């Protein structure tokens, strides 16, 4: 039994037998989540009763892989910006392309980002880069604080060194560094606007962004949550009423923004004039598109990269291509892409190029031949990528169902949190491996090491 398996087994046994078998502690844990506003649409964002664990070896590998991969992504972004043919392969909307062409006035396209990865049999596989408006960092920290002092974790801490990973402090430091590194006049303490759409009829008490607002205010920074339609730009100043804005933490995706507004919006005008620092910049949409992995895994483009970056891409990024009628390479062999997709359903997944579209993903190994053929036709009509299947890690988690303790096997996706290219913490997303349950949610992630 591995170190990780032993820790999971020990935790699950703690809550399965003895005093902790009674649900009172679990009910209190969930009450704490509700009090902290850790809900979405009336449901707990974490319905599970165990955090996700990673070992020191896993975390160190995750950090090294992630930071090297992000360096490679930055390199391919610069190539795209300098090459119209590569830009065309990204399948951007015309307005997205125009926004990407505006220099953000800051050296960092992605100040805060998140990688979606699987830790399986000691190997890290990265399936996606969330570079536009990544979420979960604030919720994960509050969840970690709640779980850290829960009865089972108190027992676990007698046997293991347990470390919480990441936090809101890292985000604020990254925002301020980006602001100070941008062009334009600088204030010692910039006014911060968290940009999101107003939700006048929402039924849940808090959002993650209110957690950030409260923290930023507590650190002495004037911070407001602002909706795009409230913004005005005049005299070289972006404002919401009397609130002058120096720094925007953008929580609205580029696609969401462009569905409602055009490029004459005050935010775009202020951004173009470098009158405001926008984090993440609109240029981050380039890296957010899944097509970026299609470029990264193209050996003809990768050949000129530094050796460590080539190694990380080859070992940790699944083969990816934009779906279309074309010839391409797979494991150094030339193939007809559509024919290859049709014949290799069991090892491929079709994903929309942008997560914020209303298109769905298709997992070939879950479909019959006829359904897969229909999915491929759909993927040729809309912006899609095809990606090689990655084995996901599974683990058993306890949860409370109608007052009764249950154990369910869940798929565990680990999300390293990245600030200015450096990994500083991570969270985990758990999803069902069975069609009979819809249980899914965020889980705090603890670094766990045996006590000597």
Secondary structure elements and pairings:
Blueprint: H1 3-16, H2 24-35, E1 39-40, E2 43-44, E3 52-54, H3 56-82, H4 84-89, H5 94-100, E4 112-120, E5 123-130, H6 137-148, H7 151-156, E6 160-164, H8 168-180, E7 192-195, H9 208-218, E8 223-226, E9 232-234, E10 237-240, E11 243-245, E12 247-250, H10 254-260, H11 266-272, E13 277-279, H12 285-288, H13 291-296, H14 299-302, H15 307-316, E14 320-322, E15 327-330, E16 333-336, H16 337-343, E17 348-352, E18 362-363, H17 369-381, E19 384-388, E20 393-401, E21 404-419, E22 422-432, E23 440-450
Parallel strand pairs: 3-23, 7-8, 7-12, 12-13
Antiparallel strand pairs: 1-2, 4-5, 4-21, 6-23, 9-10, 10-11, 14-19, 15-16, 17-18, 17-19, 20-21, 21-22, 22-23
Helix pairs in contact: 3-15
């Amino acid at each position: 039994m591995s170190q990780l398996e032993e820790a999971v087994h020990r935790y699950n046994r703690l809550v399965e037998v003895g005093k902790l078998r009674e649900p009172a502690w679990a009910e209190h844990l969930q009450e704490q989540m509700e009090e902290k506003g850790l809900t979405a649409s009336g449901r707990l964002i974490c319905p599970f009763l165990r955090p996700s664990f990673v070992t020191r070896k896993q975390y160190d590998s995750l950090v090294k892989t992630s930071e090297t991969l992000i360096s490679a992504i930055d390199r391919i972004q610069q190539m795209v910006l300098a090459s119209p043919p590569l830009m065309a392969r990204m399948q951007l909307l015309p307005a997205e392309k125009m926004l990407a062409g505006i220099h953000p006035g800051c050296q960092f396209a992605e100040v805060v980002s998140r990688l979606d990865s699987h830790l399986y049999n000691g190997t890290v596989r990265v399936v996606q880069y969330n570079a536009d408006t990544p979420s979960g960092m604030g919720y994960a920290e509050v969840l970690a604080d709640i779980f850290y002092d829960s009865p089972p974790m108190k027992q676990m801490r007698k046997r293991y060194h347990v470390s919480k990973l990441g936090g809101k402090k890292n985000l604020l430091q990254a925002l301020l560094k980006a602001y100070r590194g941008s062009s334009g006049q600088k204030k010692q303490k910039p006014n911060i606007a968290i940009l999101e759409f107003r939700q006048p009829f929402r039924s849940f008490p808090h959002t993650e962004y209110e957690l950030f607002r409260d923290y930023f205010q507590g650190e002495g920074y004037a911070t407001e949550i602002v909706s795009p339609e409230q913004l005005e730009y005049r005299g070289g100043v972006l404002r919401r009423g009397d609130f002058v804005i120096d720094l925007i933490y953008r929580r609205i995706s580029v696609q969401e923004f462009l569905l409602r507004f055009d490029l004459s919006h005050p935010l775009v005008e202020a951004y173009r004039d470098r009158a405001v620092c926008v984090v993440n910049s609109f240029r981050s949409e380039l890296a957010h598109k899944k097509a970026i992995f299609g470029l990264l895994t193209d050996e003809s483009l990768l050949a000129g990269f530094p050796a460590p970056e080539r190694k990380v891409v080859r070992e940790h990024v699944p083969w990816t291509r934009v779906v279309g009628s074309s010839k391409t390479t797979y494991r150094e062999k030339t193939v007809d892409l559509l024919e290859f997709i049709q014949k290799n359903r069991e090892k491929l997944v079709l994903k929309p190029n942008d997560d914020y579209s209303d298109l769905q993903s298709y997992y070939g190994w879950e479909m019959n031949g006829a359904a897969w053929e229909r999915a491929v036709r759909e993927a040729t009509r809309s912006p899609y990528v095809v990606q090689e299947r990655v084995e996901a890690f599974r683990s058993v988690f306890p949860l409370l169902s109608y007052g009764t303790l249950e154990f369910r096997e869940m798929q565990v996706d680990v999300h390293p949190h990245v600030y200015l290219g450096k990994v500083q913490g991570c969270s985990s997303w758990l999803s069902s491996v069975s069609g009979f349950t819809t249980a899914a949610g965020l889980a705090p992630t603890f670094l766990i090491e045996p006590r000597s």
